[in-house]
Amino acid sequence: MKVGILGGGQLARMIALAGYPLGLQFVVLDPDEHAGAGGLSEHLHGAYDDPDLLAQLAEKADVVTYEFENVPAHVAEFLSSHTTVYPPANALAVAQDRLVEKNFFNDLGIGTAPYAAVDNLHDLQDAMPNIGFPAILKSRRMGYDGKGQMVLKSTDDLAAAWQAMQGAPSIVEGFVSFQREVSIIAARRPSGDIVFYPLSENQHSGGILRLATACTNDAEQAMAEDYVRRLLEKLDYVGVIALELFDVDGQLLANEFAPRVHNSGHWTIEGSETSQFENHLRAILDLPLGSTQTRGFAAMINFIGGLPQTQELLNLSHVHCHLYDKAPRKGRKVAHATLRTDDAEVFTQTLAKVSALAQRVDQS
Amino acid sequence: MKVGILGGGQLARMIALAGYPLGLQFVVLDPDEHAGAGGLSEHLHGAYDDPDLLAQLAEKADVVTYEFENVPAHVAEFLSSHTTVYPPANALAVAQDRLVEKNFFNDLGIGTAPYAAVDNLHDLQDAMPNIGFPAILKSRRMGYDGKGQMVLKSTDDLAAAWQAMQGAPSIVEGFVSFQREVSIIAARRPSGDIVFYPLSENQHSGGILRLATACTNDAEQAMAEDYVRRLLEKLDYVGVIALELFDVDGQLLANEFAPRVHNSGHWTIEGSETSQFENHLRAILDLPLGSTQTRGFAAMINFIGGLPQTQELLNLSHVHCHLYDKAPRKGRKVAHATLRTDDAEVFTQTLAKVSALAQRVDQS
């Protein structure tokens, strides 16, 4: 069986590494000549919407998946008409538009921060009395890692913020005073079987995920599973999904979901009986889903823009390196480390050491 | 960094899968067009002793290793004179000759079964009063998985057995009445640092390994570590080594060693904090060695000559698939499964199920 992947970066790389033991082969489509999954797969080198390459991808692959959600609708449509594509195109459509996504959450009875559609400065001005300050103005489409977002602290900020959006259809969201950010990762097969990973508690800085920690036996696990199950079933979803949530006094508000494997689930490679990458493959190939049982204490630390010496990381017992074969560049995720141990004290001490290493080399 | 591997089969495949997260790239030399590591590496396609390909391998790789011990001496010599080769050539020389190997064990104070060199029928006849029946006649070189071996039950068997050796320098070994076969896997860095895995208890059938089970806190662990340490230090060894031992009433007798990653260590992928494959790479790259701590109960089951449906295996919780991308053929190892769980009862029950699957498809 050959799996096609739109995108050949670190997510495709980790999907391929999880897939070889299952006897799978891979073909990726990526414009980057040095795509991180390139050495692990057949690499179709060109634009994501190149019709010839898409036709080749559809021809070569038994099933096509993707490592990013901003797949143009016509690309998903083309691929779907020629081969099996998972997750389904409707999940992409919802995830690509923050307004549609927020409405979707609310229609499913899942709370969100207050929000309003903004198509012009008047919309923004009208919305603010209900939304309140501080708030955040975001383009409805194509944002990630904090890009395309403007913070609004008072009415003085509105005009400049709207101008910065350059007329893009937008959404304004109220800030939520949350205790923590968490995400839940789940996988669903075509048959409807679902497995859930334990919550991950996530720390962002500058809009970029820095640390994700596995939360075994979390008090909000059941609520998060209920919410993500509603998404999966409504979308008749197949594959891995990640739902990001704010924990506000024990109530969970949905932030956004990603129809793909997710950075906050990277600790599952060593921290879970079956990783999110393997379960994504099992799901899209309609194979039995693997146990999501956690192995002890686990966390993932991102390296942004710079890398320590491999030796420094491997000197720390219980630390596993994941380099992405990407040239360091400001703000770019170039690697992560997983920390896994059965000992709570070792976990805390080692986490501090790895975090210090990550901060030392940080270029974000 | 680029690692070169002589041989591109399942061991090279699992070395490469362990190496990508460390940011490594791979080049393999293998005559098989469909070498299992081919998709994961640059594949130099041709004979192991092709001078042009060896020169390319030495040129491309920062360090060269191998997945089999029968590397011709002049190949190891050529590579060593052009690049770094680990494990060292002297380990190959010892492991390639059963007589040299047995003498080596005894010189290090490590017991073996009784043995004698056999260069002609007279040698064999002279040796048998001391060796006793039953015994086994083996060519000194190039045997694996029970090939090139003749069982001797009485003096009537001697002439035919010697004839079957076709004049090859041989060794006759007495049978050992052992309680179990075990192996110990260890890794050593150039600096001299060594890590040891827990003993693996191994079950063979027809000369082929079928089942390897991790033995945590084994009574013979210390003795096995002492023995393998003597080997490693005497050989100034770098990389992973596997030492096969017979347990005879609590005394360990050396059978043979393999200067490479070993089938009896495949359970370390899921069963250990760091796999034998990753520690082999860490060792030959002079990186800190990873923890060999075992995670719960772990075992490896080989699939010989045939494969069950992936679905059947993945239906069993706690079971991990490792397919080698090899066409099934009688007697050929085509895959293994790892079973890992914290629950002793689940372990026993699931092991029986996987073993039954392996027996059902067995073609050996």
From TrEMBL, chains A, B:
The keyword GTP-binding does not apply. Its EC number is 6.3.4.18. It catalyses: 5-amino-1-(5-phospho-beta-D-ribosyl)imidazole + hydrogencarbonate + ATP = 5-carboxyamino-1-(5-phospho-D-ribosyl)imidazole + ADP + phosphate + 2 H(+). Residues 102-285 form the ATP-grasp domain. ATP binds at residues 98, 138, 143-149, 173-176, 181, 204, 255-256. One of its GO terms (cellular component) is cytosol. GO terms for molecular function: 5-(carboxyamino)imidazole ribonucleotide synthase activity; ATP binding; metal ion binding; phosphoribosylaminoimidazole carboxylase activity. Gene3D superfamilies: 3.40.50.20, ATP-grasp fold, A domain, ATP-grasp fold, B domain. GO terms for biological process: 'de novo' IMP biosynthetic process. Keywords: ATP-binding, Ligase, Nucleotide-binding, Purine biosynthesis. The keyword Nucleotide-binding applies. Pathway: Purine metabolism; IMP biosynthesis via de novo pathway; 5-amino-1-(5-phospho-D-ribosyl)imidazole-4-carboxylate from 5-amino-1-(5-phospho-D-ribosyl)imidazole (N5-CAIR route): step 1/2. Pfam families: ATP-grasp, PurK_C, RS_preATP-grasp-like. PANTHER family: PHOSPHORIBOSYLAMINOIMIDAZOLE CARBOXYLASE, PURINE BIOSYNTHESIS PROTEIN 6/7, PUR6/7. Belongs to the PurK/PurT family. Homodimer. Catalyzes the ATP-dependent conversion of 5-aminoimidazole ribonucleotide (AIR) and HCO(3)- to N5-carboxyaminoimidazole ribonucleotide (N5-CAIR). Catalyzes the ATP-dependent conversion of 5-aminoimidazole ribonucleotide (AIR) and HCO(3)(-) to N5-carboxyaminoimidazole ribonucleotide (N5-CAIR). This is N5-carboxyaminoimidazole ribonucleotide synthase. It comes from Methylomonas lenta.
